[in-house]
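Hi support team,

I've been running sequence recovery on a batch of backbones for a student project. Most finish fine, but this one hangs at about 90% for roughly twenty minutes before it completes. I'm not sure whether the input is malformed or the queue is just slow. I've pasted the C-alpha cells below so you can try to reproduce it. Let me know if you need the job ID as well.

Thanks,
M.K.
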C-alpha cells in the first residue's frame, strides 16, 4: 500500500523515513538489501512473494511493526475525515460514488455520458482527481454540470480530507448525486474511504480478464464493477464471463454491469442501479 512510503505526508508525526538530500526522502544504502526477511518468501517456481509479513507489504529499511504504525496513523486520520464527509452527505441527502480504475478505463467518458443522459432525472456534480491537469473537470463542465478538479501532485489517490474541502467549495445540492473520479490506478485508492456510499470499479475489456485476481483489494472494496468498452468486444478475445467469475472470486457480493460509454449500450442498467441505490440510501439515512 502506498501509505508506507509517507511521501507527501510530512504532517504525520514520527515521519516514516529520513529525508535525503533530494528532499524526497529515499535513502539507498548500497549493499544492504534484505534487512527484513520476514516479509517475503521465495516460491518453488522462482517467484518472490512480498507482503507475507504482518503488514502485508514491504518498505525498504522499515520493520513490519513500523509500517503498520504508519498506516494506522494515516488511515485513522483519513477515516475520521471520511466519517465526517459521510455524515455531511447523509444530512444533505447527497448520494456520493467513488469511481476507481486504472487510467484510461473510461471513467470520465462514463460520467459525461451519465450526466448528459440523466440531465432531466438527477442533478449531478463531480470531483475530479488526477495527478496533473484540469482536463477532466473541463470535460465535465462542457455538459453543464459543476465540477472541481483536485490535482494530487505525486499522490496516487484522493483522500477524505481533500474531498471534504472540495465538497465545501462545490456545495452539492440536497438530493443530488456527487461523482468522485479518483486518481487512476488499481492499488492505492482501495485503501482510502472518502465517505462515499459505494466504490464503483470500472474495468475496460481491453485490460484483460485477470485484473480482479491481480489487484484484489480494489475489487474487494467495490460494490459495483462496470465493465466498459463493450463495443470493442468483437475485436478482442476478452471473455466477459471469465472476467466476472474472477471478480466474484475476490468479492462474491460484487454487482456487475457491462456497458459501452461510447455507444450507450448497457447504460440504462447503470442508471437503474444508480437510482435504486440512491433511493435505498435516502430511506436508510431517514431511518437512522
Ligand atoms: N471504444 C471505446 N472507447 C472508450 C469507451 N469509453 C472510453 N473510451 C476511450 O478510452 C479513452 C480513455 O477514456 P477516459 O474517459 O479519459 O478514461 P479515464 O482515464 O478512466 O477517465 C478515451 O480515448 C475514450 O474515448 C468505450 O466505451 N468504448
Ligand atoms: Mg478521467
Amino acid at each position: 500500500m502506498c501509505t508506507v512510503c509517507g511521501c507527501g505526508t510530512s504532517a504525520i508525526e514520527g515521519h516514516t523515513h529520513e529525508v535525503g538530500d533530494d528532499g524526497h526522502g529515499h535513502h539507498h544504502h548500497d549493499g544492504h538489501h534484505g534487512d527484513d526477511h520476514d516479509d517475503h518468501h521465495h516460491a518453488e517456481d522462482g517467484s518472490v512473494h512480498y507482503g507475507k509479513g504482518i503488514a502485508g507489504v514491504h518498505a525498504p529499511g522499515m520493520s513490519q511493526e513500523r509500517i503498520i504504525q504508519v498506516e494506522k496513523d494515516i488511515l485513522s486520520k483519513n477515516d475520521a475525515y471520511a466519517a465526517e464527509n459521510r455524515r455531511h452527505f447523509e444530512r444533505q441527502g447527497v448520494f456520493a460514488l467513488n469511481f476507481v480504475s486504472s487510467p484510461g478505463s473510461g471513467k470520465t467518458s462514463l460520467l459525461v455520458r451519465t450526466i448528459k443522459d440523466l440531465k432531466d432525472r438527477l442533478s449531478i456534480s463531480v470531483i475530479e482527481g488526477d495527478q496533473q491537469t484540469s482536463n477532466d473537470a473541463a470535460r465535465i463542465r462542457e455538459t453543464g454540470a459543476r465540477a472541481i478538479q483536485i490535482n494530487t501532485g505525486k499522490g496516487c489517490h484522493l483522500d477524505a480530507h481533500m474531498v471534504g474541502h472540495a465538497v465545501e467549495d462545490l456545495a452539492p445540492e440536497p438530493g443530488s448525486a456527487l461523482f468522485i473520479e479518483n486518481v487512476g490506478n488499481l492499488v492505492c485508492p482501495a485503501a482510502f474511504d472518502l465517505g462515499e456510499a459505494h466504490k464503483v470499479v470500472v474495468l475496460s475489456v481491453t485490460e484483460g480478464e485477470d485484473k480482479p485476481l491481480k489487484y484484489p483489494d480494489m475489487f474487494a472494496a467495490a460494490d459495483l464493477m462496470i465493465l466498459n468498452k463493450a463495443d470493442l468486444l468483437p475485436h478482442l478475445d476478452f471473455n466477459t464471463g471469465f472476467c466476472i467469475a474472477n471478480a466474484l472470486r475476490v468479492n462474491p457480493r460484487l454487482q456487475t454491469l457491462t456497458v459501452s460509454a461510447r455507444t450507450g449500450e448497457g447504460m440504462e442498467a447503470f442508471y437503474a442501479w444508480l437510482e435504486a441505490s440512491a433511493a435505498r440510501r435516502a430511506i436508510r439515512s431517514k431511518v437512522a
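--
Follow-up from support: It reproduced on our side and the slowdown came from queue contention, not your input. The helical segments are 64-92, 107-117, 135-141, 160-170, 211-214, 216-221, 240-250, 267-287. No action needed from you.
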